[in-house]
Design a protein that fits this description.
The chain is mainly beta. It has one domain. The protein is 5% helix and 40% strand. Strands 1-2-3-4 form a four-stranded antiparallel β-sheet, with no helix packed on it.
């Protein structure tokens, strides 16, 4: 967090396990997935001089998840990429 107003976060997710089509409900029955998550946050009023709104501290966030592998198949994991605007 820089100056209590801007923050960046990154994370790597790797999920693996034994195939079970009945449990996972995927064509291959595999839970295997690998993704990277990137997030940016902005708190516009964190250093605000307005002391009468101390309870009001909005945060705007953008999060992007990029899949390298999804459900254990080598198809097109990019089709599952996700963008959240909060």
């Amino acid at each position: 967090m820089y100056d209590n107003t801007v923050g960046l976060t990154a994370g790597l997710t790797h999920i693996w396990g034994a195939p079970d089509a009945a449990f996972y409900g995927t064509p291959t029955g595999s839970p295997n997935s690998t993704a990277i998550t990137l997030q940016a946050d902005w708190l516009p009023l964190a250093n605000s001089p307005f002391s009468f709104y101390t309870w009001f501290d909005p945060r705007f966030s953008t999060q992007y998840i990029h899949y390298f592998q999804f459900d254990g198949n080598g198809g097109s994991p990019n089709d599952n990429d996700t963008l959240f605007l909060l």
